[in-house]
C-alpha cells in the first residue's frame, strides 16, 4: 500500500492550513505582522568611519544626565536576600560598558584588514528593535515604543524587575536600585529600582533635531532616516566597501544597522563581551515563536464552534 | 433520560478537568509574565524552572489561550444550541462569564500589541496590562467563592 495519511496527520495539516488561510484573509493582519518601515527611524553606523574619539559618549552623557538616577540611600532592605542591590551611583564615570549612567560606549575590536592589523571601534547602545521584546513583554507597560521606532523606558513607571534585560538579546537595559515607583509601593517585597538605557534622545527627535550622539560625531559615523531608506543605504555602502551588515534581520530586524568592512563573526570574536558589553552574534526573532501562534488563536474558536455543531447534528440525527 | 437524578452541572467530567487545567496553566504562565517566580524561589522547585523563563511562559500562555478560546466557543454554542432549553445561567455564571469576556478581550488586544506592526498608545497598553491582571484577580476570587459555596455556572430550569 502506498503512503497513508493518518487522521491525526490530516487534521494537523488541515488545521495549519486553515490557520494560515484564516490569518491571511483577515484585513490588516499582514500589515500587523510587519513594522511600518516608512515610519520607524533607523540609524546606519558605518564602523569603518569611527575613530573611537568618544565624542558621542560625552554628548550622550551631557544631554541625558538630567534623566540619570538619583537614588535614595540607604536602600530599603529587600526580601528575600537573593534580590541583588545594583548600585552605580558611586561609579557614574564608568564609560567602558553600559550602566544606568552610561547609555552608549565604544567597543574595541582587533582585526586584520588586507593583511594589516587594525583596530576597529564600534559605538554600542540599544539597538531599538523593530518589534522590541523589552517593550512588548514589560508587564506594566513601563517600556514603550514610539511610532518612530524609538523604544524607551519610562522611569516614572518602571519597577526595576529587570525582565526587559532578560528578554533583550543584547542585555542592554541596566538597573539602578533605590529609585523609582517601587519605593512608594512595597519596596521590600516587590521591585528593585529602575532600568535605564538609550532612548535615542526621543525629545530631541520629536523636535526635529538629531540625537546627541549623531550630532556630536566629527566623522559622521551615524546617519538617521526612515528604516526602508537606511536599509537601502546600508546595502549600497556594504556593496561599495565589500562589507557586512548587522542589525537588519537580527531579532526580526532592528533600527540600528551596522556596516563593517570585516565579517561580524570576526568582530564578535575579538570584542570584549560580558555584563553591560553586548555581543555581535546573529540573533533569531525572539517574538516570532509566540506571534506565529496568533493565527491559531483565530482558528481555535472556529474549531470549538465546529465541535459543538457536530455534537448537535449527531444528537439530532 | 434519567429524570430522577438531578444534574447539577452542564459540563462533563473530562470537560471540567479540561477547564480547570487550562485555567491553572493560564494563570500560572500569566503570573509568570511578572518577574516574581525566581525572586520568591518558586522557580527553584524541581519541575518549575520554566516559570523563570519569560519566552517559555509567554509561549505556554499563548498555547493555553488557544485551548481556552476553543473550549469557550464550544461551551457557548453547546449551551445556546443544546442546553438552553433545560438549563439557565446562574448569577455567578453571568459574573464569571463577564469577567472571562473581559480577560479574553484584553488578552486578544495584548496579542495584537505583540505583533510587529501594531502601534497602540502607551496609555492604552498600560490599561490593557492592568485590566488583564485585575480581571484575572477578580475571576480567581469569584471562582474561589463559587468553589467554596458550590455555586455552578448553570442550573436546571
List the keywords.
heterodimer; A: 317 residues; alpha+beta; Alpha-Beta Plaits; two-stranded antiparallel sheet; 11 helices; 32% helix; disordered N terminus; B: 157 residues; mainly alpha; two-stranded antiparallel ribbon; 2 strands; 4% strand; globular
Order of helical and strand elements of chain A: HHEHEEHEEHEEHHEHEEHHH
* Measured distance between first and last alpha carbons of chain A: 35 Å
Poorly predicted runs of 5 or more residues of chain A:
1-21
Shape of chain A: globular
Q: Write down how many β-strands of chain B occur, each being a DSSP E stretch of 2 or more residues.
A: 2
Average pLDDT number of chain A: 90
What's the SSE pattern of chain B? HHEHHE
Share of helix of chain A, binned: 25-40%
Determine the oligomeric state from the structure: heterodimer
Strand order of the largest sheet of chain B: 1-2
As a percent range, the share of strand residues of chain A is: 15-25%
Structural class of chain A: alpha+beta
Q: What is the count of structural domains of chain A?
A: 1
- CATH domain fold name of chain A: Alpha-Beta Plaits
Q: How far apart are the termini of chain B?
A: 16 Å
Largest sheet of chain A: 4 strands, mixed
Q: In the residues of chain B, how many domains can be counted?
A: 2
Topology:
The complex is a heterodimer of chains A (317) and B (157).
Chain A: H1 7-25, H2 29-33, E1 41-46, H3 55-64, E2 105-113, E3 116-124, H4 133-136, E4 143-145, E5 151-153, H5 163-167, E6 174-176, E7 194-196, H6 202-206, H7 212-216, E8 222-226, H8 227-241, E9 244-246, E10 256-260, H9 264-270, H10 288-292, H11 294-316
Parallel strand pairs in A: 1-10
Antiparallel strand pairs in A: 1-8, 2-3, 4-5, 6-7, 9-10
Helix pairs in contact in A: 1-11
Chain B: H1 13-31, H2 54-83, E1 87-89, H3 91-113, H4 122-148, E2 154-156
Antiparallel strand pairs in B: 1-2
Amino acid at each position: 500500500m502506498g503512503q497513508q495519511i493518518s487522521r491525526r496527520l490530516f487534521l494537523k495539516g488541515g488545521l495549519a492550513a486553515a490557520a494560515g488561510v484564516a490569518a491571511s484573509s483577515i484585513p490588516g493582519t499582514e500589515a500587523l505582522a510587519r513594522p511600518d518601515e516608512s515610519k520607524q527611524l533607523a540609524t546606519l553606523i558605518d564602523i569603518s568611519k569611527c575613530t573611537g574619539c568618544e565624542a558621542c559618549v560625552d554628548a550622550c552623557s551631557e544631554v541625558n544626565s538630567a534623566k540619570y538616577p538619583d537614588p535614595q540611600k540607604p536602600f530599603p532592605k529587600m526580601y528575600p536576600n537573593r534580590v541583588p542591590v545594583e548600585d552605580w551611583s558611586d561609579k557614574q564615570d564608568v564609560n567602558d560598558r553600559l550602566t544606568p549612567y552610561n547609555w552608549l560606549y565604544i567597543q574595541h575590536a582587533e582585526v586584520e584588514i588586507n593583511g594589516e592589523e587594525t583596530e576597529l571601534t564600534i559605538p554600542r547602545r540599544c539597538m531599538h528593535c523593530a518589534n522590541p521584546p523589552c517593550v512588548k513583554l514589560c508587564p506594566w507597560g513601563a517600556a514603550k515604543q514610539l511610532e518612530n521606532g524609538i523604544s524607551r523606558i519610562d522611569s516614572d513607571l518602571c519597577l526595576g524587575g529587570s525582565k526587559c534585560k532578560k528578554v533583550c538579546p543584547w542585555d542592554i537595559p541596566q538597573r539602578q536600585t533605590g529609585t523609582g515607583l517601587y519605593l512608594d509601593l512595597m519596596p521590600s517585597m516587590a521591585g528593585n529600582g529602575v532600568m535605564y538605557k538609550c532612548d535615542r534622545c526621543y525629545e530631541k527627535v520629536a523636535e526635529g533635531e538629531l540625537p546627541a550622539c549623531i550630532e556630536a560625531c566629527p566623522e559622521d559615523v551615524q546617519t538617521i532616516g526612515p528604516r526602508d531608506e537606511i536599509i537601502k543605504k546600508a546595502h549600497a555602502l556594504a556593496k561599495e566597501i565589500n562589507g557586512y551588515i548587522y542589525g537588519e534581520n537580527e531579532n526580526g530586524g532592528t533600527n540600528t544597522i551596522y556596516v563593517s568592512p570585516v565579517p561580524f563573526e570576526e568582530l564578535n570574536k575579538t570584542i570584549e563581551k560580558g555584563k553591560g558589553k553586548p555581543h555581535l552574534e546573529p540573533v533569531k526573532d525572539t517574538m516570532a515563536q509566540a506571534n506565529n501562534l496568533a493565527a491559531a488563536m483565530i482558528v481555535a474558536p472556529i474549531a470549538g464552534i465546529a465541535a459543538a455543531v457536530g455534537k448537535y447534528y449527531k444528537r439530532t440525527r | 433520560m434519567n429524570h430522577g437524578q438531578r444534574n447539577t452541572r452542564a459540563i462533563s467530567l473530562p470537560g471540567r478537568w479540561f477547564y480547570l487545567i487550562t485555567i491553572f496553566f493560564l494563570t500560572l504562565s500569566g503570573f509568570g509574565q511578572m518577574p516574581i517566580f525566581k525572586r520568591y524561589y518558586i522557580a527553584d522547585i524541581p519541575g518549575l524552572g520554566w516559570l523563570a523563563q519569560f519566552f517559555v511562559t509567554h509561549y505556554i500562555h499563548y498555547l493555553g489561550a488557544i485551548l481556552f478560546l476553543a473550549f469557550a466557543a464550544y461551551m457557548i454554542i453547546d449551551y445556546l444550541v443544546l442546553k438552553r432549553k433545560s438549563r439557565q445561567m446562574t448569577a455567578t455564571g453571568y459574573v464569571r462569564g463577564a469577567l472571562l469576556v473581559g480577560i479574553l478581550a484584553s488578552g486578544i488586544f495584548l496579542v495584537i500589541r505583540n505583533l510587529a506592526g501594531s502601534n497602540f498608545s502607551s496609555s492604552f497598553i498600560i490599561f490593557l496590562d492592568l485590566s488583564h491582571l485585575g480581571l484575572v484577580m477578580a475571576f480567581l476570587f469569584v471562582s474561589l467563592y463559587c468553589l467554596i459555596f458550590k455555586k455552578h455556572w448553570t442550573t436546571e430550569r
